[in-house]
Design brief:
Blueprint (H helix, E strand, L loop, with lengths): L7 E8 L1 H13 L3 E7 L3 H15 L8 E5 L4 H7 L7 E6 L16 H13 L2 E4 L2 H15 L10 H5 L3 E3 L69 E4 L9 H13 L5 E4 L10 H8 L4 E4 L4 H10 L2 E3 L9 H8 L3 E5 L4 H4 L5 E2 L2 H13 L1 H6 L11 H11 L6
Parallel strand pairs: 1-2, 1-3, 3-4, 4-5, 5-6, 7-8, 7-10, 8-9, 10-11, 11-12
Helix pairs in contact: 2-3, 3-4, 7-8, 7-12
Length: 406
């Protein structure tokens, strides 16, 4: 008997980063998926023109029942250009939303991107957000956003969209944290990067008294204590694992560390994450001024990156925008103590003891921990990362991609 063919269309106009990870995860774990993507380049052009591209490249297939896409796609345009897709269950996934995405000045905000997302919601059957913060900030901003229209403004769009909305956390395939500590040299260019195939291969001993659940994937293990008594005298190891862009507020992070240095407080530093063509100037200044403290600097392949997280003590976010925060949760899973702004998505995920309200509070917390790193090394972070794992969330995504609407 012949298979009826692919049931789910996974469409991703910006196939990179967390967008790629989600599409790959769904394709690998849910049967009946067919994937159509565009490379993660020129985001603004993808948001403007991807619908036209996919209208010409998506096949006509009677077995298709569900269309899943990120909100980068203008779903309204795609369905208008391809009316044969209109009968599918249309699922729109928000990794971020353009109504509150930070820009230097509000006058720089391109109205069209947020407007496209609103239109896409109106033609969707299900609108999924990766956090309550993402959903609430989007829905509560629609009314004021539409006031930018000079006249004949639409009304009550949030009331039309809200019944379709649900929150489904981004599913993380957490690393196996049963790895040994390995020291890595400072990395400043791709040529210097260690070969990922040589890192993280083979079997590793478990850390602590970890009990394994035979029904749970080894990539979704709970965080464990990773410290031994020999670590207690080492300086506090601070890690910053974010994109090198202004919306992650590197200026606040580095100014805090420079203040620690001026106070002659000892620490070690790893600055990881991707950097792009326009790197904020603070990075070059910080590398010079903080050089004696730096253990790792720059992008690392996955295996080396995880080893650094396992060695680190504290992970810091200074973001001025965050709708979920995979990097922070991965670091916590690897045993890092988190320090996050008391804003954005963070209060939704992290207890109050890990949140700071002002730059001065961040400085004081880091100063205290630098002087008493043993506090961190004995501490078990009160965040259940398994709640955000693919193992926990798989059933919800399977239901989402079924033909039933919630």
């Amino acid at each position: 008997m012949q298979s009826e063919g692919p049931r789910v269309l996974l469409v991703e106009p910006f196939y990179g980063g967390s967008h790629k990870q989600l599409i790959d995860l769904l394709q690998q774990n849910i049967s009946g998926c067919s994937v159509f993507t565009l490379p993660a380049k020129k985001w603004h052009w993808r948001a403007r023109t991807a619908a036209l591209h996919f209208s010409q490249t998506l096949p006509t297939c009677p077995s298709h029942r569900v269309l899943f896409s990120s909100s980068v796609l203008n779903l309204c345009e795609l369905v208008a250009l391809r009316p044969d897709l209109a009968h599918l269950k249309k699922v729109l996934y928000f990794h971020e939303n353009q109504l509150v995405y930070p820009v230097r000045k509000d006058q720089e905000r391109d109205f069209q991107y947020g407007y496209n997302q609103v239109l896409s919601c109106l033609v969707s059957d299900v609108v999924v957000f990766n956090s309550v913060f993402n959903m609430d900030s989007f829905l509560s901003s629609i009314s004021s956003f539409m006031k930018k229209i000079p006249d004949h403004r639409p009304k009550d769009l949030d009331q039309l969209i809200r019944p379709k909305c649900l929150v489904l956390y981004y599913p993380i395939q957490f690393p196996d944290v049963s790895r040994p500590k390995v020291e890595y040299k400072v990395v400043s260019s791709p040529e210097e990067m260690p070969d990922e195939a040589q890192i993280g291969s083979g079997e590793f001993p478990s850390l602590g008294n970890q009990q394994e659940d035979p029904h749970e994937s080894r990539t979704d293990q709970r965080p464990v204590s990773k410290r031994d008594p020999g670590d207690q005298m080492k300086p506090l190891h601070i890690v910053w694992p974010h994109r090198w862009e202004h919306d992650k507020n590197p200026e606040l992070f580095f100014s805090t560390l420079m203040k620690l240095k001026e106070k002659e407080v000892d620490f070690n530093l790893s600055v990881l994450g991707e950097n792009f063509s326009e790197v904020p100037g603070i990075f070059s200044e910080a590398r010079l001024r903080l050089d004696p403290h730096i253990l790792n600097w720059g992008f690392l392949p996955r295996g080396a990156y995880l080893e650094v997280l396992l060695q680190a003590d504290v992970v810091v976010s200074t973001a001025s925008h965050e709708f979920f925060g995979v990097a922070m949760l991965e670091a916590v899973h690897c045993g890092c103590y988190p320090l996050c702004p008391k804003a954005l998505v963070y209060p939704e995920i992290f207890p109050a003891e890990y949140l700071y309200s002002t730059p001065e509070q961040l400085f004081k917390q880091l100063q205290r921990l630098c002087r008493r790193p043993d506090i961190v090394r004995r501490h078990v972070v009160k965040v259940d990362t398994s709640s955000y794992s693919w193992t926990s969330l798989k059933g919800h995504y399977e239901a989402l991609l079924s033909t039933r609407c919630p």
